[in-house]
Amino acid sequence: MSQNPPNLRPDLARAIVPDERRAGQPTIGMVSLGCPKALVDSERILTRLRAEGYAISPDYKGADAVIVNTCGFLDSAKAESLDAIGEALRENGKVLVTGCLGAEPEFITGAHPKVLAVTGPHQYEAVLDAVHKAVPPSPDPFIDLLPASGVKLTPRHYSYLKISEGCNHKCKFCIIPDMRGKLVSRPAHAVLREAEKLVEAGVRELLVISQDTSAYGVDRKHDMAKWKEGEVRAHITDLARELGRLGAGDDLWVRLHYVYPYPHVRDLIPLMAEELVLPYLDIPFQHAHPDTLKRMARPAAAAKTLDEIAAWRATCPDITLRSTFIVGYPGETEAEFQTLLDWLDEAQLDRVGCFQYENVAGARSNDLPDHVPAEVKQDRWERFMEKAQAISEAKLQAKVGQVIQVLVDEVDDEGATCRTKADAPEIDGNLFIDEGFEGLAPGDFVTVEVEEASDYDLWGRIVA
């Protein structure tokens, strides 16, 4: 789990709100670490504060206090969170801590006893109470106006849409259920209303996120909610269909993240073939050997998964499959790792990430026997990534000559940085345009012909 890139960190002008502070207006800064789900939490906190009359500072020195939204998924992420808290204390002095690591307050205060308050994940009211105590509000109802889309920490043209909290899985390497609890799905009409407001505010891509997107609505027994002239069921298939209908033609992309390969996922694929949602699935397979998967306490049906992948591609040939894997899990033998490599050869996934296993305080996997030595984990990671890179390179080379639609993310003096339908922001590749880009702006859709490919990125030219 990594820190947000520099352009998403509030101490480097991340919060996308006008920096027009009135005299004496209380001001809060935000450092948001970890995954997109935490980023959504940060946006909600800042939106609430903005509605109460607080200004949002683009740097530490301009803030009366700083909120650090932490990550606690891995020990390395915990260390990064502690570093960020220390930096905020040095630069500002008044720091409030929230997020996943906030579930271990003694761990934080033991390292940084000067923090003003510690709250856990998605404890919005507790965060607000702590801010009120540290920096009392002073709203002016005639001046303080909240942007219609709220406060965003992402570019204006795309937004993360969180549909649930928590997770019902009991993977041995993960402590997310301990930190964030069991699955709690948002009502379908609430998700759709938020999405509609985002689209009305100019968002061109909705990135649907949760801990387990395909389980959406299970805890609600897939109840019905009023929406427009009818009703909508709290089920990922129905929700995805309605989200796709918010856009006109190719004016909106809907991208699904963190989808577990349950049997009902096959019902999403026709929506992709119909272009209601992007032909893109982000599925955390984690491994392919059944014994490794059993030690992880995950579904152990890798062979059946290959059949599902083949069926998805038969229905939607253009589908992009992204996944993450863990190498060096306790007990992983060379034979088990080789099975993973062979499975990857057969699956031919488009986008792949890989992590070396590491212990996480509180995870049950820590107590498993036969932990893999660090040098073996490194070797397996390198071999895995070499194969994944070769697959990616071949798939991207096959795109040369194709005419495709891309979404512009950034334009500077050297060119335009764009993404295809196969690329999620910050985790996948890019398509670059270095000629005739002068009239483009972030959020534009443009049609290009792919001219060149590398291991992970594309280059193209604008076509009429």
Verbal overview:
Its cofactor is [4Fe-4S] cluster. With 464 residues, the chain is of the alpha/beta class. It folds into three domains: 6-134, Rossmann fold; 158-397, tm_1862 like domain (pyruvate-formate lyase- activating enzyme, Alpha-Beta Horseshoe); 403-462, Nucleic acid-binding proteins (OB fold (Dihydrolipoamide Acetyltransferase, E2P), Beta Barrel), CATH 2.40.50. Helix content is 31%, strand content 20%. It is built from twelve helices and 20 strands. The protein has helices spanning 36-51, 75-91, 105-111, 124-134, 176-180, 188-200, 236-244, 269-273, 290-296, 302-315, 334-347, 374-397; strands at residues 27-32, 55-56, 65-70, 95-99, 117-118, 158-162, 164-165, 184-185, 205-209, 224-227, 230-233, 253-256, 280-282, 320-327, 351-356, 403-411, 416-420, 431-433, 445-453, 458-462. A five-stranded parallel beta sheet has the order 2-1-3-4-5, sandwiched between helices. β19 and β20 (458-462) form a beta hairpin. The chain is globular. The two termini are 41 Å apart. 44% of the residues are buried.
